Amino acid sequence: MDTSVNYHAQPQYEAPQPPRRFHSRVAQKIDRWIFLYNVTTGLYMLDWWERCIINTVFLIFLVVAGYNSNHYLQMIGAGLLAWVWGADSGRAGQEGLLAGSDDGGANGVMGVGS
């Protein structure tokens, strides 16, 4: 029968750590997100200036896509609000989109029979 004590299985003493500040936790989380983004997209193997160019092109693409989709999202939102409010086929919510046009919406852009 083995009665020896296994000292390796006992927990080691750890000195108490000072509480971490909020901004250091946020900075660590942001660093972790940037690291995961670089590893997931494969940008970790590029130099810093190549990474900057790729990120700038990606950011410009996102801004252009968001800007161009704004018009279509307004049309969908106006139609959805008109449907929720029970208006006739979405035309009641679209007058606000045509407020700046000179022809009063008769250019046929918003639908058939306008």
Automatic annotation (TrEMBL):
It is a multi-pass membrane protein. One of its GO terms (cellular component) is endoplasmic reticulum membrane. InterPro entries: Ser_palmitoyltrfase_ssu-like (IPR024512). Residues 1-20 are annotated as: Disordered. Keywords: Endoplasmic reticulum, Membrane, Transmembrane, Transmembrane helix. The chain crosses the membrane at residues 48-67. It is found in: Endoplasmic reticulum membrane. PANTHER family: OS07G0446900 PROTEIN (PTHR33727), PROTEIN, PUTATIVE (DUF3317)-RELATED (PTHR33727:SF5). This is Uncharacterized protein.
